[in-house]
## 1
Amino acid sequence: MNQQPAGKKKVLSMKEDLLRLPVKPGEKPHLVGTRCHNCGEYTQGVRVVCQKCFSDDVEEVVLSNRGKLTNFVVVRVPAPSWKGPIPYPLGEVTLPENVVVMTQIIGAEIDDIKVGQEMELAVEKAIEDEEGNDIMAFRWKPVAGKEAA
């Protein structure tokens, strides 16, 4: 997590094992995953064992920040804890590493979202915690000027 001086508002990742926020100027937020040295499988999130072959010969990797929208739904009845807009699009994006990452789609009208669109990682404030810190979550947004094939 980002280290800030005491008493200063922090910006924190909602899930540090999935999303890393910049700690130095010039760095960008990125998704993290795991790559297995035994079978070559990539997975979302930090793991100690490969989900495919169960090898422990794995390493943490930075995942691509772009991929193709492979599926999406419009959520009209959200979980009781949901604080965002309703309805909202929830999409599955397949990254070049063949990892499927699902989260909310932002930056587009629901009727303009198409399977096959190129999407890119976006990070936005999801909530504010009890200490007043901004808790950030990852989202997908369409890449400007890239229509579905």
## 2
Amino acid sequence: MSFTRWVQSLAVPACLLPSYPLFQYTSVIMSSVPRLPRVLEAHEDHDRVRKYIASSLQPLRPGSRVDTVSVPLDESLMRSLRTASLSRRLVRGLENAEAQLRLEARGMDKVDRQTGVTRGARISRLILIANDGAPGFYSSLEKLHRVHGDRLLVITLDVDARTLGESLYGHGAVARALLVEHKDAVAAILLGLTWDDGSDI
């Protein structure tokens, strides 16, 4: 549940929200997002990235139970995506992403059974999507998120599928969804995002 949706569920009058102590506001924001990849935990920007994600979450589409963060496809993010692509850490297409996540989930379940320890929710994969998806695409993404949402962050880019595809794969290519499938690439992309909203959240 996003921070905005959580606050709305409390039915607190908007006029009272500014009077909440800042530390309480910050704590609520931080608790609304799963943990980030372990490789980011000691990074100086960890809290800022996590708070930005929490405060920026919004429904994927009206009525959706899946939240997304909308970001621009700027040069910094483009460099991170090209690096991930060259390292074979990008999976193109929602069906291919679902197959990869399913394969990974089987492996994690096996490890959990062997160790007797069930891992908690932690963002370890990203789904980056274009902003021109059809209803059927969003329905498929919501279905995928219901299964893998405990480790998946959805990011909506401010470009259409052809622009995204051609930027990464050349003329005529289309990319409506990209799975970032390695924790190091996930961390690099999260840190590569500008996040400079002009304030310390």
